[in-house]
Amino acid sequence: MTAEPLLFRPLKVRGLTLPNRVVVSPMCMYSAHHGLANDFHLVHLGQYALGSTGLIFAEATAVCPEGRISPEDLGLWEDRQITPLGRITDFVHAQGGRIGVQLAHAGRKASTYAPWRGRGAVPDERGGWAVLGPDDQPYHEQLRTPTPMTADDLAAVPVAFARAARRAEIAGFDAVEIHAAHGYLLHQFLSPLSNSRTDEYGGPFENRVRLLLEVTRAVREAWPYHKPLFVRLSATDWAEGGWDLDQTALLAEWLSREGVDVLDISSGGLTPAQQIPVGPGYQAPMAARVKAATPDLAVMTVGMIDTPERAEGLLQNGDADLIALGRPLLGDPHWAQAAAQALGAALELPAPYARGARTT
């Protein structure tokens, strides 16, 4: 172990300096009303600032009403959603933290129940809605059959992402991430398994990546130059004939030319037929491949990184530049502080917590 753990070295991305490399992965909480953040989100996200996490990402936040995963998703499709989110960013900044937001459109996986409220599609009488997709293939027989997107539908997507990015700036976020993973709309266009179109948005690689590139350009133009832009990708569908790591590595090179700063590498979520060999740090080799393809970009890895030693090892190996955590931080919002102690790193704590820090 080095004297100065990489996990707790600062990282500068454009004009944003992160105090450490621990990142709260975007995690859907399904607790909003009409897309509006509330006290739950303030407490949920605020706890990570008190826990000295380097960067906090708010959950998948819909850029339009039909882009919600569930009726309870956060949103940034209208101006009244700015102020409640601004209350959260103000609190995080007051604790010395940094916070980003993931912008998303669920496509054919929209209008579904929150996990603890039911299974399958939400019917119209319970607040459900018609869904859109690249074609008319549903994700699952229990979900809605999507309406294939028209030229007008497609043109509206980059506009919606750009407008949401502008609202994110007004709300005070330090970073935005475009969600192009886990089987949601932009991933649906990337994968041959979910995109059977025969127009300029389907077929060969350059057509299937077109919508994501258009969204990226629109967001980069709308988002301040000095603030970083992340893109989350599923590196593979884990299914024969689907999106794979070779295509991800090539797309990463294309995204690097579009003003993207960080690639957030995850996997899966596109098809129920996926076969995922889950294990500790199982997605890190994919992040390492993307990092090798795009040495000018920072790369974030995620997935079963359960100990400080494992996180530090991935950084020391050069597999990634940032470590995103989900379940470990749900279980312990002060994970970063415990990790610093375990690795022998100095970590500045929020003043009200500093006097309770152990010195031995």
Automatic annotation (TrEMBL):
<dbReference type="GO" id="GO:0010181">
    <property type="term" value="F:FMN binding"/>
</dbReference>
<dbReference type="InterPro" id="IPR001155">
    <property type="entry name" value="OxRdtase_FMN_N"/>
</dbReference>
<dbReference type="GO" id="GO:0003959">
    <property type="term" value="F:NADPH dehydrogenase activity"/>
</dbReference>
<keyword id="KW-0521">NADP</keyword>
<keyword id="KW-0288">FMN</keyword>
<feature type="domain" description="NADH:flavin oxidoreductase/NADH oxidase N-terminal">
    <location>
        <begin position="7"/>
        <end position="342"/>
    </location>
</feature>
<dbReference type="InterPro" id="IPR044152">
    <property type="entry name" value="YqjM-like"/>
</dbReference>
<protein>
    <submittedName>
        <fullName>Oxidoreductase</fullName>
    </submittedName>
</protein>
<keyword id="KW-0285">Flavoprotein</keyword>
<keyword id="KW-0560">Oxidoreductase</keyword>
<dbReference type="Pfam" id="PF00724">
    <property type="entry name" value="Oxidored_FMN"/>
</dbReference>
<dbReference type="GO" id="GO:0050661">
    <property type="term" value="F:NADP binding"/>
</dbReference>
<dbReference type="InterPro" id="IPR013785">
    <property type="entry name" value="Aldolase_TIM"/>
</dbReference>
